[in-house]
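Quality-control log, excerpt.
Job 1 of 2 completed; input and output follow.
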Amino acid sequence: MTIDLHSETRPCGVDAASAAARRVIDALVGSGDMTDADMADIADRLNAVADDLEETAPSRNDRLVNMWVGDGNTRHDPVTGPENPIAPPLEYVGVDSHTIEATTTLGLPYQGPPSSVHGGVSALLLDHTLGVANGWAGTSGMTAELTLRYHRLTPLFEPLTITARQISVDGRKIRTEGAIRTGGEDCVTAEGLFIAKHPPRPR
């Protein structure tokens, strides 16, 4: 896996549709004061869009295959995937040969405690970021262990910096560390053990 540094172009195609869906998700979570009648109308319109998409979608097996065609960059995962409307999505940059980072601001769809990011969302972001850091460093694999320490609440609506660094490779064992920070302070830190093994792609 390599890092796509992303050009500053406006999304188009499926990326644009997924970006629009992110807006819908965010707006729905933030629109609790609308009447049942208003929401029923919105549901009808969203169901019409879903009907159109389902009518033209390939079979599940075909989609599982074509998701993995290409150079190995995933566009559909729930953290960085521009095709996935539940992804923020994170965009990584290389800091050095073993370290990456991304900056993002999370809104209400990711809330757990009041005004704070859900702990499971933090775990998802860190697990994925540690894995991408391994690919960036040149030796990647599957998560075997992920140890998290929650230092403080991770705030919504504030810029978060998510970093990861590959620490060592010993045979098939890869060790990686990462953190979610805001204002220069750790919110969540992670230590991961990865095994240099990859499942076969669907065919």
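Job 2 of 2 completed; input and output follow.
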Amino acid sequence: MFRWAIIFAVVALIAALLGFGGVAGLSASFAKVFLLVAVVILVLGFFFGRGKRIP
């Protein structure tokens, strides 16, 4: 998920530099959504983990 967020952020940056405002805004929105989902999954994984490990 972090990879997709970075990809969309780079696409948004390049599109903004080239003057494609609509594409830049849409890509930035997708980057924000992917980043939010990735952080939520990371936090849930941290708190709930895999459970008790038996050696």
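Post-run check on job 2. Residues 2-48 form one domain.
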